[in-house]
Amino acid sequence: MSDQPSLFDEPESGSSSAGELNPAVVAEVNDLHTQLNQANYQYYVLDDPQLPDAQYDRLFHRLKELETQYPQLLTPDSPTQRVGAAPLSHFDQVTHEVAMLSLDNAFNEQDMRDFNRRILDRLKQTDAITYACEPKLDGIAVSLLYENGVLVRAATRGDGAVGENITQNIRTVPSIPLKLLGNDFPPVLEVRGEVYMPKKGFEAFNEKARANDEKLFVNPRNAAAGSLRQLDPKITASRPLEFCCYSLGRVDGADLPNTHSAILNLFSRWGFKINPEMKVVNGIEGCLEYYDNLAQKRNDLAYEIDGIVFKVDDINFQQQLGFVSRAPRWAIAHKFPAQEEMTLLKDVEFQVGRTGAITPVARLEPVFVGGVTVSNATLHNMDEIQRLDVCIGDTVIIRRAGDVIPQIVSVVQEKRPQDAKSIVFPKSCPVCESHVERIEGEAVSRCSGGLVCAAQRKEAIKHFASRKAMDIDGLGDKLVEQLVDEGLIESFLDLYSLKLADVANLERMAEKSAQNLLEAIEVSKQTTLAKFLYALGIREVGVATAQNLVNHFLDLRALVKADLEALLEVDDVGPIVAKHILSFFAEPHNQKIIDGLLNIGITWPAIEKKDSSELPLVGQTYVVTGTLASMGRDQAKEYLQRLGAKVAGSVSAKTSGLVAGEKAGSKLTKAQDLNITILDEDAFLALLSEHGIEHAG
Ligand code: D41
Known about the structure:
With 697 residues, the chain is α+β, with helices and mostly antiparallel strands. It contains 24 helices and 26 strands. Strands 14, 15, 16, 18, 19, 21 and 22 form a seven-stranded antiparallel β-sheet that branches. Strands 2-13-10-3-9 form a five-stranded mixed β-sheet. The radius of gyration is 30 Å and the shape is globular. It starts with 22 loop residues before the first helix and ends in a 7-residue tail after the last helix. Bound molecules: ligand D41. Residues 101-103, 134, 136-137, 141, 157, 194, 246-247, 309, 311, 328, 331 line the site of ligand D41. Ligand D41 is lined by residues 101-103, 134, 136-137, 141, 157, 194, 246-247, 309, 311, 328, 331.
């Protein structure tokens, strides 16, 4: 069956040539396959790693070692074969024995009601139909063929009848089993689903590509398609792809359950990822409610979806309904509003940020996209403008996905008007007219004016006053601009000598508000060292880095005196951050401001040097699982470590406590079984607070 090239034309595992081998070696290889497959499944399919990384690596290396020593034991379904085989010259064609159908679309409630009505009429039913609902993943449909539980062929959908053989690429996708789990699978099984790139992976990929001046993908769907279309499987292997299954193709030699949802649950047992949002509902009202619920959740999902697929759950009903012109009558895709729209680029303005970075901002003809009206989009930098080949007057495609700022993803070149104007990057700062410089190897251009530049000063003050910094209540962006424009303040130090009369005289400022502002400024003098450091606005020093610096140096004097070597000892501080810190404290202007701030009475509680053995959670091991509303899991782990605890990836009898957020899965069950202390988010925050960590969610 397999038409793959030589590397995989080896005998199957456990076949004749293994006869010359020590049976113990064969058994060990089989055992390694089982352990690694199971670990892979827990990590990539269930998203619930159980085997520590080091242990996985050890097993993996042992298997590699045995495969090198006994090449006849190297099979295409070996867990070592995910790294990508040798490049192909072209993709072979594959004829789908069972056609891959397409989906009809519904664009509104009425379309959905019509769909349901047609089904009831055709089936001559009056009772509500049971539907299986699944998010419609925005990726690439593929079909996977398993013979005796081993993946032998993978193909794209193509035109539904003929696709391309992408077996080599598919083998690199970690959530696709190379060998099915269990032993009750049919001898021939074809599983269909979507290969997609989760949003995070997509954004990280594009960020890197942008930094390296490489080609970007316009959306996660193109990213998935582009990654699967590679002739070199090693490239595919480097892309963060996932697979989720949603239907059955061919099956020989076994009877499968008679509902779609039960079949998917079986697939899940055999090692496939099924969508955790999949749900069975009753009737059209159930479908509409599911759609509304998921539309709300759309932005929070880890992957992009463009609608919901509704399927008649009963396979007998499906067969009675059949299909018309390649689309089943028993399924429909209810689409969400588009996240990409076309609009006109009216102008480009250049904004100056806190660090002087000059960002081109596109002014657009307002357009409704992804649920909001968008009239601005970032153009990042000059490289991006060149990459897009965009001019003022162009028709552009805007994309707004989730909470990501709207982007221009491409230009409709055919629509470029005669009088399109090219975008010229300013040579001097649009705010202070200082010289604009661009450091070799950096994509951004910066205003060289520093604190001479009103834009940079305003941004520095806004940052200083912000919630995670000095948290000056009532000092919003507009007010900062007013104060600077009126010449009342030049730096954030000047905030502390503001006079009530000056503030109260500002336009639209009531006496009471002015009073409140001055009080808030006074209150801000009591802070923490970490907040103060963050507030200074040192480049690349965010909240987490500021905290790491404090943990390491304990007081400001020690930090200010630190040299490069000392800074590099701090967690997560690399040469670039260290250089920014050094040059910040070396700058006389900054020294003056810091002295000034200390002199007007900014203080923080002293941090005692704690012997690590005195830390409150020393000797304890915690596990963090589920979604916490007020912080990411990494932040939770960082807090635990700060208190001296160890953080582990899996629950065992040695676990002291499990921090369990929403949607905690098997770790929670396991902890309950083992009678381990479980802390919900409130209990966790209380624990932190008890030990002096006040997390501001
Ligand atoms: O998530 C999807 N993109 C998805 C696509 C899904 N959840 N279910 C699907 N079901 C089908 C049928 C009903 C024909 C088995 C599909 C697709 N088809 C599909 N994807 C691309 C073309 C058709």
